[in-house]
Amino acid sequence: MANLGDNNPRAFGDAVSLDAWRTRYDENSGEADLHVNVVFSDGRVGGGIGSPVRFRLQLLRADVHVVRDSASVLKISPSSVLTPNASPIERTAKTSLETEHAGQARLSLGTASSAEFAGGRKHVVRQEVVETGAAAIMKFVSMKTPEGYLFRIEQVPDAPLSGSPWSPSTSVLTMKDPKAPRTNGEPPELRIELRCRREDMHITDIQITENGRNVLVSPNKMLAVEQYINQNY
Questions:
Q1: Strand-strand pairing, 148-155 and 138-144
Q2: Is the pLDDT assigned to residue 102 strictly greater than 60?
Q3: Closest-CA residue to 151 (of 196, 96, 213, 181)
Q4: Between these two residues, 162 and 220, which has the higher pLDDT value?
Q5: pLDDT for 176 beyond 90
Q6: Are 189 and 71 within 8 A, CB to CB?
Q7: HEC profile for the chain?
Q8: How far is CA 137 from CA 43, 87, 155, 229, in A?
Q9: Residue 5 in this model has a pLDDT that exceeds 60
Q10: pTM for this prediction
Q11: Distance from C-alpha of 151 to C-alpha of 137, rounded to nearest angstrom
Q12: Alpha carbon distance 153, 198 (integer Å)
């Protein structure tokens, strides 16, 4: 198993962690599986020694790019690229008619939707809604790009990303080395990148540090954050 290096994007602080690795190339098929472990959280950026500003950062949307090697030696199987597979939610309504005698009541589940009284007895119509299927916390789509493939990740509902969109044990795609097994040298590697637009950054709790009072050009806190990001990343 080969690790594809430290893919932790420092520009996002601890708002996101990104790691990637592949399995060994099979001697017969020349194929290997790529795994990507991406985890989103409420991160803090800046505030270190000499830092003029500190703030909290969460991402609203992010793209994980799988970039081919420069010579396009490795081949990616389109059918192996991970796609959303969440089961749809199914709702089933169960209705029952129960009778409760004065001073006595039978245990029942659900919410009473209607009731009527007759001769000391109460007839209660109860309805229970049962939901089955998996409800996704995050959604993603995969698509081909000129560089390779990308996985666009968004929150459901529209909120900052939190957690992982898939299990790290799940292969996101399968690659093939046409020259496997190699007797000399190592095969090229794919490059994994996380990209995010400025409008997809949710920035809060901005604080100008003592170091920043004589460094930052703008007194506006949000402009100060953008200035800090542009200068450091």
A1: antiparallel
A2: no
A3: 196
A4: 162
A5: yes
A6: no
A7: CEECCCCCCHHHCCCEEEEEEECCCCCCCCEEEEEEEEEECCEEEECCCCCCEEEEEEECEEEEEEECCCCCCCEECHHHCCCCCCCCCEEEEEEEEEEEECCCCCCCCCEEEEEEEECCEEEEEEEEEEEECCCCCEEEEEEECCCEEEEEEEECCCCCCCECCCCCCCCCEEEECCCCCCCCCCCCCCEEEEECCHHHEEEEEEEECHHHCCCCCCCCHHHHHHHHHHHHC
A8: 19, 13, 6, 29
A9: no
A10: 0.70
A11: 16
A12: 15
Distance between CA atoms of residues 148 and 173, nearest Å = 11
Selection from 40, 46, 48 nearest residue 15 by Cα? 40
CA 126-129-134 angle, 5° bins = 165
Is residue 111 predicted with pLDDT exceeding 60?
A: no
Task: Kindly tell me if the per-residue pLDDT of 120 is higher than 60.
Answer: no
Cα separation, 6 vs 198, whole angstroms: 23
Paired residues of 191 in beta bridges: 67
| pLDDT value, residue 54 | 82
